[in-house]
Amino acid sequence: MSENDWSTQLKKIEREFEGLPPDPSPAVMRMQSESERLNQQRAEERSASLGAAARLFLVLALGAAISLWPYAHECGVGLLTYIGVELMLIVGGVWVATYSWRHRLPRIHILSLVVALGGLVLVAMEVLPRTGYAAVDPQNLPQVSCVRA
User: Which of 8, 126, 137, 146 is geometrically suited to a Cys-Cys bond with 75, CB 3.0 to 4.6 A?
Assistant: First the structure.
């Protein structure tokens, strides 16, 4: 003799009497949860890519601002400040590269590494002539500290 679960049978009858659709089957429930999971994953990917793009924009804005640097940066405190800003460009590029690596965003990752490399080139252009590593004009040697006359 088969055992009837009268409470589930009663719930089905009540749902039908109230004009509600029948309870979804387990397969339908799985498909709905999978669909919700995919939608949530897409939203997270979208927000991660927007976040990485915003970070990259900020670092690129700093790089553009360096090209418009209004202060003297030949020697002294101005030079140290300028090199400090260039170092921040490198740090910003690595920051965006780390974020984009974690969120699997290859294009932004490559762009951020290019920005960091550009910052390294800018620092090298300032530091190497002053350390004697790069060839410079012997009559106009670059100075780290300003000569007081």
Answer: 146
pTM of the model: 0.73
Q: Is residue 88 part of a domain?
A: yes
Residue 145 lies in a domain: no
Contact (CB, 8 A) for 32 and 25:
no
CA 102 – CA 3 distance, rounded (Å): 54
Number of domains within the chain: 1
Phi/psi of residue 147, each to 5°? -85, 125
* 129: CB partners within 8 A, 6+ apart: 136, 142
Whether 76 has a pLDDT exceeding 50, the answer reads yes
CA dist 8 and 44 (Å) reads 39
Asked if residue 137 belongs to a domain, the reply is: no
Domain that holds residue 29: 6-131
Task: Give the lowest-confidence range in 24-38, 55-69, 73-87.
Answer: 24-38
